[in-house]
Design a protein that fits this description.
Elements (H helix, E strand, L loop, with lengths): L1 E5 L2 E7 L1 H9 L11 E9 L2 E7 L7 E2 L4 E2 L2 H13 L3 E8 L9 H13 L7 E6 L8 E6 L4 E3 L1 E2 L9
Parallel strand pairs: 2-4, 7-8
Antiparallel strand pairs: 1-2, 1-11, 3-4, 3-7, 5-6, 8-9, 9-10
The structure holds zinc ion.
């Protein structure tokens, strides 16, 4: 379990084991590995967003070593299905073929556009980029509020990850 915070936001984001395992399984560890990605779903509890589920990639996504373009139609359907199960869409994740990941300019532009087009629970959307280094070093977590891209830092209360 890893908890992320930012001093300028009162929300805490907790990544559960299922989501972290899913990220780890999709790392681009081989030269032939394509980027992977998908959506993040959370439940809310007292100002804390628990990321219970990370989905994707799916066969209809466009994937190569440096590109991940999700099948947005299927994603919209997934958001509705998960909502009926009490899980809220809170953002996207994808991998980069690097040890320590950073969101690209295009990544930041995409999440900003998504935030501005949507109604959401989280005062913004999360952009998670997964690299090859063990977590939390290999994890980049940004909360885009529509005006600001806040880089979240791993909190001291996190349980050490063995991934
Ligand atoms: Zn990217």
């Amino acid at each position: 379990m890893l908890t992320y915070e930012n001093e300028r936001s009162d929300i805490a984001i907790v990544f559960g084991t299922a989501a972290l395992d899913h990220f780890a399984r999709n790392r681009q560890l081989r030269p032939s590995s394509a980027e992977a990605g998908g959506q993040l779903f959370a439940t809310f509890d007292d100002g804390v967003a628990h990321i219970d589920l990370a989905t994707g990639p799916r066969p209809t996504d466009h994937r190569s070593r440096y590109v991940f373009r999700p099948d947005r139609r299927s994603e919209q359907l997934e958001i509705k299905t998960m909502f009926m199960r009490g899980l809220h869409y809170v953002g996207d994740w994808h991998t980069h073929p690097t040890q320590i990941p950073q969101p690209s300019i295009e990544d930041l532009r995409n999440i900003r556009a998504a935030v501005r087009q949507s109604v959401h629970e989280l005062k913004g959307f999360l952009l998670v980029v997964v690299g090859n280094a063990p977590f939390p070093v290999g994890l980049s977590v940004t909360l885009d509020t529509g005006d600001d891209a806040l880089r979240l830092q791993v909190a001291a209360t996190s349980t050490a990850s063995t991934l």
